[in-house]
């Protein structure tokens, strides 16, 4: 029984480490991301050929 508990704890620790590493990577790779809510824009003024 102790071996099973050690295995489960080890798997959870590895999973938590992977999730934490992905969160840190996401934070550094998206430094310029818009924070907060979505931007509000009027789609009737949108033009596809805008350059």
List low-pLDDT spans.
Answer: none
* Gap from first CA to last CA: 66 Å
Largest sheet: none
Number of helices: 1
Residue fraction in strands: under 5%
- Helix/strand order: H
Q: What is the chains' assembly state?
A: single chain
Q: What integer value in Å does the Rg equal?
A: 22 Å
| Beta strand count | 0
Helix content: 40-55%
**What is the average of the pLDDT values?**
80
Describe the fold and architecture.
This protein is mostly helical and 51 residues long. It is built from one helix and no strands. It has one helix spanning 2-29. The termini are far apart.
What are the key terms here?
55% helix, 51 residues, elongated, mainly alpha
Task: Give the topology.
Layout: H1 2-29
Task: Summarize the entry for a quick read.
Helix content is 55%, strand content 0%.
């Amino acid at each position: 029984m102790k071996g099973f508990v050690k295995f489960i704890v080890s798997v959870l620790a590895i999973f938590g480490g992977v999730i934490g590493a992905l969160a840190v990577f996401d934070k550094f790779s998206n430094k310029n991301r818009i924070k907060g809510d979505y931007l509000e824009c009027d789609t009737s003024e949108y033009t596809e050929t805008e350059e």
